[in-house]
What does this fold into?
Amino acid sequence: MASNKAYISEIFSSVQGEGRYIGCRQVFIRLSGCVFDCPYCDTDFSAEETVSVGEITLSNPAAPDSVAEAVLHEYDPRFIHSYSFTGGEPLLAADFLEECANILKYRSGRKTFLETSGLIAEQLPRFDGLFDIMSIDIKTHSDKVLENIPVLFRTVTGLKMSEYYLKLLLPENFRRELLDIVVGQMVSFGIKDIIVQPVDNKINGYDVDCLFRAFYENGIAARVIPQAHKLLGIR
Ligand code: SF4
It folds into this structure.
């Protein structure tokens, strides 16, 4: 029988620094491992032999019920907005994710939140409804992204219960043709809003003008939102 244990990089409480729920207090459960190798990745998702949950120490790989119980014990659910499963790529540990999110969601009454690279979209329907909110990245530095976009958009627009939003990760020297592809695919799938997140919080005036024109001309409500946790100097 396959193990549903997973390697956890860190568990901590902080402020969500990105996207639609910027500013909300969350407990972050960062899983180890990723499917991609983004050149701008600044996330340490490697795992140690143990992981701390407040005063509790768990061995890696950790069982989903142990993680959920430790999180419930150490962080009073009344004072958090949601539990964020992040990475790396949390969808690589799908069985762990399902069990741990289930326990947290139904024992705490708080929301469950998934942060995914969007590169294994086929896993998302399994979690429709289990996660109240899905934050889905669109990476813009690789042609692999272009191939993935139609599958990703078809999948997210098919979600019936989870709220989702798209976050376009935009490097300073973004490729205009890639933006056109994203906009074109959004129009074809009827997706009407997007958050643009400049990589390293850097964007120049020309980019902003070009961006808003591309989205607004096509009826898409775009917002540029930086990574607030970096501005605040917190993780
Ligand atoms: S998908 Fe995210 S975690 Fe993975 S390499 Fe890219 S930025 Fe890092």
